[in-house]
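Sequence design from tokenized structure. All designs in this work follow the same two-part layout: the structure record, then the generated sequence. An example of the structure record is given first.
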């Protein structure tokens, strides 16, 4: 699903909330309000109908199914204790965006650290998990458990009733990163990161596929994914002796920024080499850094998490699902 389509679905969900108890405008009017085609409107309405957010009355029109956000007053945010929020801008931003989204809906949030094998905490009226500790939460859910959304879990974790999983399309992003460097003329690539982390492993899988498809040489350099490790590696990395200057793909923005800092004292042909990374954090926006970051749609994910909790909370028979979000290039237009 494209980023633009996801945004339009989100806009339609907000519209459905505003029309609770009333008939929705016609398809033509909705197309005008959302600035999309009528076929796109019909597709979005079909998605919302499958989610139970609207119902259609023959000869009468389309009506919202009223959500009951008053049933969801407090949500617990369970963050894997291995995630260092102070040193990880990605997770810090994601948590902040979701807290803001909950606040806009009048929902209180409680943040708690949790280990992978820690006892199950009190789950409040809804749960959002961050990282691999969510696997333990999902496997421990009983029939009377509140709605749960697990963020950034491995693919082999399947959603249960009233539990959904939101993932990133890391493998596709890895292939896009290779394509970018190939189009820039690079025939050799160095991938830098920690493949033991699930997201990085998937990105590396995509990089391997892209390199094999395009016939590019690939070297993998394992490195902790933080700023200090990037600085150290940048100072140690010997690129001057490479017969063919490689393009660099780095597993996340924070490591990429450290690497650029470590490379700064090298000769110009090395210090200015382009880096492709992932996350789309604002710290990489300075053009002089020459860091090209595939961005995560943080705002869309944050809003969708809350809407998903509300959907799951409508009924004990609501069924969870797995949702994947594509990365995008911030400097390129998004298409529907």
């Amino acid at each position: 699903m494209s980023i633009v389509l996801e945004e339009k679905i989100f806009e339609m969900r907000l519209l459905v909330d505003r029309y609770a108890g009333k008939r929705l405008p016609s398809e033509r009017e909705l197309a005008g309000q959302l600035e999309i085609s009528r076929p796109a409107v019909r597709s979005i309405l079909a998605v919302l109908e499958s989610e139970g957010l609207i119902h259609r009355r023959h000869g009468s029109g389309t009506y919202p199914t009223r959500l009951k956000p008053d049933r969801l007053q407090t949500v617990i945010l369970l963050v894997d204790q291995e995630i260092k929020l102070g040193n990880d801008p990605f997770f810090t931003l994601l948590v902040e965006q979701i807290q803001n989204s909950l606040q806009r809906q009048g929902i209180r949030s409680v943040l708690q650290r949790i280990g992978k094998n820690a006892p199950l905490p009190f789950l409040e009226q809804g749960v959002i998990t961050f990282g691999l500790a969510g696997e333990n939460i999902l496997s421990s859910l009983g029939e009377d458990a509140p709605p749960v959304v697990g963020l950034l879990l491995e693919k082999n974790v399947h959603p249960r009733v009233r539990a959904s999983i939101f993932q990133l399309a890391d493998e596709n992003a890895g292939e896009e990163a290779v394509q970018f460097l190939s189009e820039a003329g690079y025939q050799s690539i160095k991938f830098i990161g920690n493949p033991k982390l699930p997201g990085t492993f998937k990105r590396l899988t995509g990089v391997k596929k892209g390199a094999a498809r395009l016939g590019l040489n690939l070297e993998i350099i394992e490195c902790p994914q933080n700023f200090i490790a990037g600085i150290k590696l940048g100072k140690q990395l010997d690129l001057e002796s490479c017969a063919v200057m490689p393009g660099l793909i780095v597993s996340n923005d924070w490591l990429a920024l450290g690497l650029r800092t470590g490379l700064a004292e090298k000769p110009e042909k090395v210090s200015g080499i382009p880096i492709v990374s992932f996350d789309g954090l604002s710290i990489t926006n300075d053009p002089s850094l020459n860091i090209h970051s595939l961005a995560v749609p943080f705002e869309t994910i944050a809003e969708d998490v809350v809407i998903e909790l509300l959907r799951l909370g409508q009924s004990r028979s609501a069924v969870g699902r797995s949702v994947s979000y594509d990365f995008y290039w911030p400097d390129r237009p998004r298409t529907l």
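The chain is about 40% helix and 20% strand. We note this feature because it recurs in several other targets discussed in the main text.
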